[in-house]
Amino acid sequence: MSTATAKKPLPPFPEEKHWLFGSAYLIRQNPLTQMNFFIKKYGDIFSLSLPVHKVAIASSPEFAKYILLDNNKNYTKSLAYDLLKVLLGNGLLTSEGDFWKKQLEELTGMMIDTAEKTSEKFTKYAATGEYFNVLPEMTALTLDVISKAIFSSGVDDKADMVGKQIAILNEITMEKLRRPVRMPAFIPTPFNLRERRSLQILDDVIYQIIEKRRKEGVSKNDLLSMLMDARDEETGESMDNKQLRDELMTIFIAGNETSSNALTWTLYLLSQNPEAEEKMIREIDEKLDAGVELGFNTVNSFQYVHQVIEESMRMFPAVWSVGRRAIEEDEIGGFRIEKQTNVLIPLIYLHRNEKYWDEPGKFKPERFAPEKRNSIDRYVYFPFGGGPRVCIGNNFAMLEMQLIIIILYRRFRFRLKPGFSVEGEPMVTLRPRHGMMMNAVNK
Ligand code: HEM
User: Cα(42)–Cα(365) distance, rounded to whole angstroms?
Assistant: First the structure.
């Protein structure tokens, strides 16, 4: 411990706490409200008392930049992520360079076809006027898109099942975080069994696809082939099925749940803001009526659609907080961050903070107009994270969401079921707790 930092105090500990499990327990019970309360009372950095772990919540743009970018070497995620990044160094999901651009260009047609299929399906709902839950529909759609990008083929009939298992695993992960004490994984409690069963179903689907590809013996232009063709620089070895499965699972989960939640929140926000909805529909209709062909080179000309999605991710960021662990002791904002402290950055708090936004509770896509966009601080608005561990699927996700919104709103508007209660549930991703019951109305 350096003498310079040894003298610094730890970030303040809230006095409000559970008698046994500490203040973190209160946050687990009610993450968003409790976090806001603590930040207001204790400042931009404070500690959480927990029986075993050291946790600090850092919530200013300066601290976020410092942790994610300036001193990122001292703040780690996990080994699994490092491995993934190495493998994807020149991969489908790399966020820069021509290779990335070419891949996305090739994926655009598939994304359009897949979204058209969903739009076709919605015509049935529009005909009967029935209310349906749009969340699983968006999950099935984004799952289909990501699996086609990974495997060149959809998981087809298995999509429903895979979507369900991913939702269960998300719930289980959050439940694990909530439970201060839990049984080790090898004990067959109903909770552990449920997790094992879900993982098993997902594994089976992925292994089946890997095996099929090995038998076919052909290399396709997708992520699976890219990973199968990759060779370790030192040993020259390729990945075994287990390694392949781990890589694919990460992308499967990171690329599905996030986009489907973001899309669902966008449909909801548009339904509550008819003026913005009207303006967006006008843009879509004018362009398409004028003969603009929807594709990779034209999608960004739908400027207002882009702004709507950005504003929706400001209010409901699918990844609502990011976490890192301090490798060595450090100092932030005059406080000592002990080695092994888990530092959490609640980006939703920055996205909704009146210090940085005018009327943060209002849906105003105009904030993201091109002439204003550059003046938004990179660490006040960062739905895809920041620094070297920024989301590697961000361009993929933006392209996918823009295409889907354009295709759906070419035909429909979506209306929330009267009286339906909408509530954000900050699990691993921020999702609508009760789903989203809406109907599709023909334009
Ligand atoms: C609306 C959609 C999405 C949002 C909001 C989102 C958000 C994020 C954020 C905030 C991170 C950083 C987490 C951290 O710093 O701890 C991240 C990482 C990641 N995302 Fe996304 N993501 C989205 C879509 C996607 C898609 C479509 C893919 C894959 C095609 C993807 C793949 C990944 C991967 C692999 C990482 C880990 C990168 C690393 O640690 O090096 N994401 N995402």
Answer: 32
Question: What letter does residue 388 receive in the DSSP assignment?
Answer: G
Provide the residue ranges of all domains of the chain, joining segments of one domain with +. Answer: 3-442
**How many CB atoms are closer than 10 A to CB 232?**
11
CATH of segment(s) 3-442: 1.10.630.10
pLDDT confidence band for 224 (50 / 70 / 90): confident
**Ligand 1 atom index nearest CA of 92:** 30
Nearest CA to ligand 1 atom 1: 259
- In the block, tokens 């040894």 appear at 6
Instruction: Collect all residues with Cβ–Cβ distance below 8 Å to 403 and sequence separation of at least 6.
Output: 108, 111, 112, 115, 294, 299
d(CA 50, CA 56): 11
Strand order in the sheet with 412-416: 132-133, 437-442, 412-416
Residues with CB under 6 A from ligand 1: 77, 81, 84-85, 93, 146, 250-251, 254-255, 258-259, 262, 318-319, 322, 383-385, 389, 391-393, 396-397
Query: Torsion over CA of 426, 314, 348 and 398, rounded to 10 degrees?
Result: 70
Average pLDDT (90-103) is 50
Q: What is the DSSP string of 265-332?
A: HHHHHHHH-HHHHHHHHHHHHHHHHTTPPPSTTTGGG-HHHHHHHHHHHHHS-SS--EEEEESS-EEE
Burial class (CB in 10 A: 0-12, 13-18, 19+), 121: middle
pLDDT band at 163 (very low <50, low <70, confident <90, very high): low
In 3D, which of 202, 204, 248, 241 has the Cα closest to residue 223? 248
Within 13 A of 126's CA, how many CA atoms are on the CB side?
Answer: 16
Distance CA 224, CA 117 (A): 24
DSSP string, 137-195: HHHHHHHHHHHHHHHSS--GGGHHHHHHHHHHHHHHHHHHHH-SS---TTS--HHHHHH
Residue 443 Cα to ligand 1 midpoint, Å, equals: 34
**What pLDDT does residue 174 have?**
63
Q: How far is Cα 439 from Cα 131, in angstroms, rounded to an integer?
A: 5
Rounded distance between C-alpha atoms, residue 12 and residue 298, angstroms: 51
pTM: predicted TM-score of the whole model, two decimal places: 0.88
Ligand 1 centroid – CA 51 distance (Å): 30
Rounded CA gap, 112 and 441, in Å?
21
